[in-house]
């Protein structure tokens, strides 16, 4: 009984502290070996889609040959255990017609005795746990069988928990897709209406040339907004998988970025201050990082409706280079600040997909960097003016 309790707590400790199912089941399998003093073990998982058992985890001399073998229910010892749903102990497999000696013949491993038990939860078959050969050459005992059943029950909980998490994640992904679709419909609807209205005005003969130029410019602005929103959606939905980092001198990249932001700030009646102290080599996807910085700068500009200053600076911090963007806007409210990099979280911006800063975070992290924000609203800290500063730290060596 003491051995059973010890095994239970050991396996339960794994389940409580390890989230990765593959790592967890490997530990469960090896704990099974140790608990019954076996030479080898394996875990076969049942796939209801094809109705077969698939050996996903194996240890011992023949592990490479055994792993990924498949069998239908009722075939072989594992298939039989899965079919009848109770523990099977065989003292001499060579006298049992269910034993398949193919692996032994190809590897030289000698299977003598096996003990196998189903992994099931609420009458649902999840797989089979099997141990092979007692190290002292003896037969597996009833105590060994009870121990293995305890471990199998714990493994079932781990598998069920993992699948539940997968379903939750999938549900959240579907929810995110739904929110994204709603964002597309909502945010595309307004500029589409504006473009249509201006286009109709351009068709009127009474519209003079000055107004035609003005309307054309407004149409182009909304088209650019469309393109920006589309790129955000593409980046968020998988475009980052095609990251193309290259070696470059940051000085040239920063100067080009500064020129773009200077023009944008001029149009918005804002002052841009650049302090590019670090201009050395770096490894980045220049276009993706450019979009990320422009996204932050655009948010900063939106927060300074009555004018203000945007300061962008670069400096070196050990093996990292840091880029900061600091504004004199209204700041981000505390209740939003902690979630500002989550999809569809906004601090009041009316236009856009709601994915901008989520894309920024993913872009930076795919590069091996990190991004954070420091922000204060008016009156939050005595003597500290409102505003936000986004800080991006990137490894000089790159991803």
Give me the secondary-structure topology:
Layout: H1 2-17, H2 21-36, E1 38-47, E2 52-59, H3 63-66, E3 70-72, H4 76-84, E4 88-90, H5 102-107, E5 114-121, E6 124-134, H6 142-202, H7 209-236, E7 246-249, H8 250-267, E8 271-276, E9 281-284, H9 286-302, E10 309-317, E11 320-327, H10 334-337, H11 356-366, E12 370-376, E13 387-395
Parallel strand pairs: 8-10
Antiparallel strand pairs: 1-2, 1-6, 2-3, 4-5, 5-6, 7-9, 10-11, 11-13, 12-13
Helix pairs in contact: 1-2, 1-6, 2-6, 6-7, 8-9, 9-11
Task: Explain what this protein looks like in three dimensions.
The protein has 399 residues and is α+β, with helices and mostly antiparallel strands. It has 3 domains: 2-167, Beta-Lactamase, CATH 3.30.450.40; 174-236, Helix Hairpins (Orthogonal Bundle), CATH 1.10.287; 243-395, Heat Shock Protein 90, CATH 3.30.565.10. Helix content is 48%, strand content 23%. It has helices spanning 2-17, 21-36, 63-66, 76-84, 102-107, 142-202, 209-236, 250-267, 286-302, 334-337, 356-366, and strands at residues 38-47, 52-59, 70-72, 88-90, 114-121, 124-134, 246-249, 271-276, 281-284, 309-317, 320-327, 370-376, 387-395. Strand 1 (38-47) and strand 2 (52-59) form a beta hairpin. The longest helix is centred in the middle third of the chain and has 61 residues, at 142-202. It starts with a helix and ends with a strand.
